Amino acid sequence: MKSGYWYRVWREFKKNRLSVAAGIVVVFLFFIAILAPLLSNDKPYVYIKENQIYFPIFYSHRDLDGIDLRKAGHDGFKIFPPIKYSYSEYDLDSIVLPPSSKHILGTDEQGRDIAARLIYGARVSIFIGFIAVAIYVSIGIMMGAAAGYYGGIVDLIISRLIELMLCFPTFFLILTILALWGPSLVSVMVVIGLTGWTGIARIVRGEFLRLREMDYISAAKAIGVNDAMIILKHMLPNSLAPVLVSATFGIASTILIESSLSFLGFGVQPPTPSWGELLNQSRDFMDFAWWLTIIPGFAIFITITSYNLVGEGLQDAIDPKSMKK
Amino acid sequence: MKKYLAKRILLIIPTFIGITLITYLMIRLAPGDYTSLKAGLQGEIKAGSISKTIFDQERKLYGLDKPIVVGYAEWLFNLVKLDFGKSRKDGRDVSSRISEALPITLTLNIITIFIVYIISIPLGIYSSVRRDSTFDRGTSLLLFILYSLPSFWVGLILVMFLSGEEFLNLFPLAGIISEGMENAGFFKKLVNMGWHLVLPVVTLTYGSFAFLARYTRANMLEVINQQYITTAKAKGLSEARIVIVHAFRNSLVPLVTLMATLLPGLLGGSVIVERIFSIPGMGFLTFEAILSRDIPVVMAVESIAALLTLVGILIADFAYALVDPRIRLESKI
Question: How many angstroms separate the CA atoms of A295 and B52, rounded?
């Protein structure tokens, strides 16, 4: 496979240092999202006391129930995660504190640790980004493939459908649906998924229209390969590259849409943390608590920029014009 | 060309029906009758605290007592007559509420688009002429970063640091005109409004430079590689003349057609920006309507915006077909 198409794409992609750096950030954020409970938790990984060994994060030990091991009086060997707070834990004695050694990114109006909420917020934002894009890529591929392969009346109907979706003011549409049907993690993903598929469908349709005229497809038809096989095995793999690029940009814009929705109070509902929701909460304290505004926004910015840069790099890498160089 | 025109116009009809049908169904089929918010919850009716008559009147007012098909047909008929019904909030005509909000959004967006064009196009042209120079790479990275900055964040930061008492108090916090300035002289009023619009316009513009500048640059690069540009160079014309008269004129076409697609955005307004800066435009109106479930307003704004986009797409298609004969020819086959 060393000379395969995707290997060549990877080789081209590697040449763009900025995109590679952005790719590393993307992977890093992905791990933060997956490992959130291990990075920020009010329990230690390991706790050794009187020859007893506990793993409070991984197992719940009955004799540790209701005990806060961070407090004095619980001696013994303890290893804590980097952030010693859970995302929902409030402390009314330390509300709206600026960054300090105790709370590295400060606290919000309920005394919750911003770093912890940011880490869990990454989970929500990235999770929504991936699932929503997965939904619309699937719909888009099906629609685009059907339109491009069968043409005629199928194409006419699907093209009208695409045009129709393009006409709607998407953001208003999403807001209305969420307002009427109730905002939640699932509904945000589904609504973005159902409204976002047109771009992918247009790309796949275009690719299929082009591939349909190729000799190898005529050959496959001539020897009696069935439609499903031609679409899935012979045409789809050859049209995936632009879909991948579009999906990468799609994750960036989905994260942006999700955070805008949460910012307006129509996204993920409290107490689940999301970056947009953190920004929304910050509005009441804007005149003095700069960290509440600056930090979550910066997280959104870094994430969106990274996905966009990876998308750019991929776009250049799959472009045959730049490959000849 | 006529055949192409006719075909495109006929195809609007199914799309128009689709748009209105989706708008209607989305709201009609939503769980929890939307009249319930005003007339009281279903439970309260059963408990007897709210009379069934009021509830029924509400339902009747919004056509909810009729079957879906009839309700849709009636709404569609009124829509075609440009009768959008009455707002639930204050009982006024939806059209009069829209006509109050529209000029504000329109002003904001026209200024925004003007600034975006006036900055992006020269940037794009210059980048294409000095391709791969430090300037080209630098601006492309800068614009890329601007493009990736979430507008609600930038809006908040601008408000935080440039208005209000804590940091620099340079700009007003909210609205489009200061209190008591409504009756001031024309010039004074203009200055006051301009002062209010600085931050919203900055928030609306900065992210759009990237797209248009890159678009211009890509189009220019395509033109610059044409043989007639080489000819112009060989004739010894000055670089400025080649770039502006020969190259740019030919890359104008996609830019003009791009304008057509901007039409709906021009009227739609930005919920985020209008909300952050408390500007009573279309975005604000729609958002308030969605929050308070003022359904007639929501349905009107959404279907109008969708129809305008449809018209915008149509104009863009025609403009392309006018300029590029291949599109017309293809559709004949």
Answer: 51
**Where does a domain end: A28, A61, A80?**
A80
Give the rounded distance of the alpha carbon of B83 from its chain centre.
22
Contact B148 A252 (CB under 8 A): yes
Q: Is residue A260 part of a domain?
A: yes
Kindly identify which residue of chain A lies nearest to residue B163, measuring between CA atoms: A287
Nearest CA in chain A to B10: A160
Q: Which two tokens stand for residue A220?
A: 């496959």
Query: pLDDT digits over A80-96, tens only?
Result: 777 777 777 777 776 76
**Same domain, residue pair A66 and A119:** no
Q: Give the total number of structural domains in chain A.
A: 2
Q: What ipTM does the predicted assembly reach? A: 0.81
Range of the domain at A53: 42-80
Contacting residues of B for A158, CB less than 8 Å apart: none
Q: What is the mean pLDDT of residues A276-286?
A: 80
- A175 with A69, same domain: the answer is no
Q: Is A45 helix (H, G, I), strand (E, B) or coil?
A: coil
Q: Do A305 and B271 touch (CB under 8 A)?
A: no
Q: Are B153 and B145 in contact (CB under 8 A)?
A: no
Q: What is the pTM of this model?
A: 0.85
Beta-strand pair A77-79/A46-49? antiparallel
* Structural domain includes residue A47: yes
On whether any CB of chain A is under 8 Å from the CB of B30, the answer is: yes
**Residues A156 and A298 placed together within one structural domain of the fold:** yes
Establish whether the linkage from the previous residue to A270 is cis, with ω within 30° of 0: no
Instruction: In whole angstroms, give the CA distance from residue B99 to residue B85.
Output: 14
**Which residues from chain A sit within 8 angstroms of residue B271, using beta carbons?**
171-172, 175, 264
Q: How far is B47 from chain A (nearest CA, A)?
A: 24
Closest Cβ opposite residue B268 in set A163, A169, A176 = A169
